[in-house]
Amino acid sequence: MTTRARIALTALIISVPALSAAAQLLVLNKADATLSFVDPASGKTIATVATGEGPHEVEVSSDGKLAFVSNYGAQAPGNTLSVNDIAARKEQKRVDLGELRRPHGLAFTGGHVYFTSELSQKIARYDPVAQRVDWTFDTKQDRTHMVLATRDGKKLFTSNIDSNSIGLLTQAAGDQWTQTLIAVGKGPEGLDLSPDGRELWSAHSRDGGISVIDAASGKVTHTIDARTQRSNRVKFSTDGRLALVSDVGSGDLVIFDTAKRRELKRLPLGKNPTGILIAPTGATAFVAVSGDDHIAVIDLNTLSVARAIETGDSPDGMAWVR
If DSSP codes are grouped into helix, strand and coil, which group holds residue 296? Predict the structure, then answer.
């Protein structure tokens, strides 16, 4: 390496916001069927654990001890969850979900992990203490894909890709839930709740739009023409000022000013950008560039690509461990 190259590399590393030395970045490699434990500061893979076929999403328990992986499957539909011991960096249990096929989106709340089952048109809940699925809910929607929960766990939101709807599930007395369906644009896939809990953003994969939904009433208050070819994920920055959308079709990360509802920047990342994760510091975002087998590290202060972290084949879902 030349002296000039060393100086340039040093400057690049310094420009990346500082990350905790104890932090770990969890990355799923779909084609390899693995979960990688990555040092986010150095970009080095610490350990790799086998999962079921086609792992898509990963979620960490509130105490940071377990990592749950939805094994979506590839040609054949998957029907398992991998429960991983984070400290030991090994798969603790692979849960057979029976008829709950194509598990995908995950959300951990109240000591349980909620997950979607696309082919079964259901949301289900796994109790890691009892080690069983203890609740299911029929959404009656086609391809219920992602799920997220409010902080208190009293509401769940789902994206239903082929029904062009967002599901708002509200917990009533006991363990009874009611569902309100919110009509949005074509192919809603990525969704995220603003840090203050007031707005839900739904990115449409088939019409280039974003629906802004009032989380309390379930009403669509605004529709943004995001001009995406195929939106995959949407993620708020920790302060709520920015919303990041990965566009699988164009290879861009599209960054929006949430208050003004307008585009700030488009960053070309490569082939098939998918999963998005915001670091707890709020200054860095990680975007899985599935088609190029790396994670793009985004400096949210400068809205620029700071560096890349090499991964396994087809990275997608990510999670953070502190």
Answer: strand
* Neighbouring C-beta atoms of residue 280, cutoff 10 Å: 12
Residue 176, both tokens: 């009874």
Q: Which residue segments constitute the domains of the chain, with CATH numbers given?
A: 19-321 (2.130.10.10)
What distance in Å separates the CA atoms of residue 260 and residue 173, rounded to the nearest whole number? 39
**Residues sharing a CB contact under 8 Å with residue 234, sequence separation 6 or more, in sequence order:** 190, 191, 192, 201, 202, 203, 210, 243, 244, 245, 276
Residue 291, judged by CB atoms within 10 A of its CB (0-12, 13-18, 19+), counts as middle
Among 144, 91, 81, which Cα is nearest to 116's? 144
What's the whole-model pTM score?
0.93
H-run or E-run covering 155 = strand 155-160
Residue 237 CB contacts under 8 Å (≥ 6 apart), including other chains: 243, 244, 278, 282, 285, 300
Q: How far is CA 53 from CA 35, 76, 96, 221, 308, in A?
A: 11, 9, 13, 39, 25
Average pLDDT over the chain, rounded to an integer: 94
Q: How confident is the model at residue 322 (pLDDT cuts 50, 70, 90)?
A: confident
- Cα separation, 174 vs 281, whole angstroms: 36
Helix or strand or coil: residue 9? helix
Q: What is the pLDDT of residue 173?
A: 83
220/213 Cα distance (integer angstroms): 4
**pLDDT more than 70, % of the chain:** 93
pLDDT given at position 17 = 44
Phi and psi at residue 291, to the nearest 5°: -75, -15
Strand locations in 172-230 (E):
177-183, 188-193, 199-204, 209-214, 219-225
List Cβ neighbours of 274 (8 Å cut-off, separation of 6 or more). Answer: 232, 233, 246, 248, 287, 288, 289, 290, 315, 316
